[in-house]
Every structure is written in structure tokens, then in C-alpha cells.
């Protein structure tokens, strides 16, 4: 705030210039770091796979599909719970993709990105299920009128919170791994094992380019789709 004020000649100086808040780095004792172990990942995915979807209760659809989409895309849970029917589409020469866009809600980077869907998600029937849904959000009811209160949490955010509690209830409760965010770490670890290029895996999960040069080399959707063919399938059965 003071930096803006000085730049726009609203203040003579920034009293906090040079101040640095140092926070000790949290210790990580798990060999997998903040990624799920294989057993944890399969516990969540197995529970999701066996969740029956009740059309009148959108959260059942979130339990069924969001963990699986996160496992195969590394997307933030909030980016997925706000997906709309029209954000899932088939592209010629690429196949099924999801559009993660600020038009649907909050996206950390503020930029749209298109992510190819893994063949296993198509085999499980996610696109076919989407096509049977009405227009609008897939995983929550659209509120009749959004609240204007400062601490208002929209339905997509509440779905994320409920998913986190559900994952913890499955016994995936190690304090060093977050119940939703753990998929981002897990995806990138598995992508490395699949020898997917760093720029491609960053583009899929929505991480900022590592260098200025990388900003000029944004992978195309076709490149990402080809890379995802090498991403290993989760063997749940």
C-alpha cells in the first residue's frame, strides 16, 4: 500500500521499506514430501471411485470426480470445484480438455489455461457424465444471489472445504500433507517419473514459468496432450 502511495505521490516515504518478515521453513519428515504416498493416493481415489452420484446433491459429484481430475491434472481444488459444463469440451486433434478460467471464479494466476484430460478420465466416463448435466456449475448449486459480506465463501470454496474434511475422514490425515493441495505435489512427482518436460508440467498445473526465457516457450495444448499419454494411470482396481 505504501509503495503505491509513494509512487502516486500520496505519501512522502514508505516507513516499511527494507522490512523483511522471516518465517522459519517448516520441517518435512515424509519421504514423499508434501505429495501423497501411493497408499494415500489410492485410498482417496478408491473412495471417490465408489461414491454414488446423487443429481440433487452436487457435492456427491465433487467427491466422485474432483480428486480424480486433480490426480491427473495437478489443478488446484478450487479451480475444479468451480468448473462449469461449458468448461469441459472436445478439441479436434487433441481430445477432451478442461478450461480453467477466471470467468468461472478465482484462478491464482488470473489467466485462463486449457488442460488435456487423461485417457483414464475419459474411460471412466467423466466427459460423458458432463454432457448429461445442465448448463452451469458441475459441482455446486449456483446461489440465487451472491452475498456481499467481506468473509463470504462461495459454494465452490465450501465444496473445497468439505472435500478436505472428507479426505481427512478417510484416514489421510498426516499434518505435513494437505488433503487437496497434495495432488499438485503428487502430480508433479509422477510427471517427473514419466519424463514430462518441466515447462510442460508447469503449464499443466498452472505454475509460473521458471525463467524469463520460459515465458516465450509456452507449450501448446497438443504438446501437453502428447505428454499426458506418458503419465501413468492410477491402478485402483
Description of the structure:
There is one protein chain. The protein has 237 residues and is mainly alpha-helical. The chain has a single domain, classed as hpI Integrase, Chain A. Helix content is 40%, strand content 6%. The chain is built from 10 helices and 3 strands; from the N terminus they run H-H-H-H-E-E-E-H-H-H-H-H-H. The protein has helices spanning 2-7, 38-49, 58-73, 77-81, 119-124, 126-131, 155-169, 182-193, 198-205, 221-228, and strands spanning 88-91, 95-100, 113-116. A 3-stranded antiparallel β-sheet has the order 1-2-3. Strand 1 (88-91) and strand 2 (95-100) form a beta hairpin. Helix 2 (38-49) runs antiparallel to helix 3 (58-73) and helix 3 (58-73) packs parallel to helix 8 (182-193). The longest helix has 16 residues, at 58-73. The protein is globular. The protein starts with a helix and ends in a 9-residue tail after the last helix.
